[in-house]
Amino acid sequence: MVYIKELSKFEGQTVTLKGWVSNKRTGKGLVFIILRDGTGLCQCVVSQENVNETVFNNADKLTQESSVAITGKIVKDERQTGGYELQVTELEIYQVAEEYPVSNKAHGIEFLMDHRHLWLRSRRQWAIMKIRNQIIFSIHKFFQERDFVQMDAPIFTGNACEGTSNLFESEFYDTPAYLSQSGQLYGEAMAMAMGKIHSALHSARKNRKRVVTFRNSG
Question: Could you tell me if residue 178 is inside a domain?
């Protein structure tokens, strides 16, 4: 099996891709499948002239988010996303998805938020998550290269921290809980132990006078 992001290494070769149908369209004797595997998107072309009847019929009945394994030859095509497409020779269906609610048409924001776990599969949300991942990685890389130690403060607390008066209430296993605002409190203790520390919220270091200074890490 090959991941879509690796297609440039296999130009002209026959490979198998596994993933989900992001979109599908049909033409005379052709089925165009946009396959998503988490690393990228690839157009897979099923030609009635090049496959047997079973393969073509299986391709034709696929729906959005159906899971499949598709085998074919990798061909360079600058017009396609990623610069390559798959000319299909074999297709195996794992599952045909039914009544998938988030289609490629426009939806209202309330509908999309109610289906957030499925909305994440769309191109825009997928791209946002990839960018977010790169930003987080870059932040961690920045601090790790400068000998900062990562620390994590508690997320929830049972009461106010550091004298704050504004609490954001939530529920933790049927028990009231509040979003903690104690990053600096824990950061001070960790900085005195480790010297230089960082977390998702703060970075800190102990200077020669043992005074803890903080700066926002983004």
Answer: yes
Question: Helix, strand or coil for residue 68?
Answer: strand
**Hey, which bits of 100-164 come out as E strands?**
149-150, 156-157
Q: Please give the Cα distance from 148 to 169 (Å, whole number).
A: 32
> How many domains does one find in the chain?
2
How many angstroms separate the CA atoms of 208 and 196, rounded?
A: 12
Structure tokens at 138: 């870059």
Domain holding 74, by residue range, is 4-95
Say if residue 153 is in the same domain as residue 87.
no
State the CATH number of the domain containing residue 80. Answer: 2.40.50.140
Its pTM stands at 0.74
Q: Which residue's structure tokens are 């990798």?
A: 74
Same domain membership, residue 156 and residue 87: no
* Tens-place pLDDT, residues 120-167: 898 889 999 999 999 999 999 999 999 999 888 777 777 666 565 677
65, 107 contact by CB (below 8 A): no
Confirm whether 113 is domain-assigned.
no
Q: Which residue is it, tokens 């803890």? A: 212
Label residues 49-74 b or e (16+ Cβ within 10 Å = b): eebeeebbebbeebebbbebebbbbb
pLDDT in tens, 15-26: 999 999 999 999
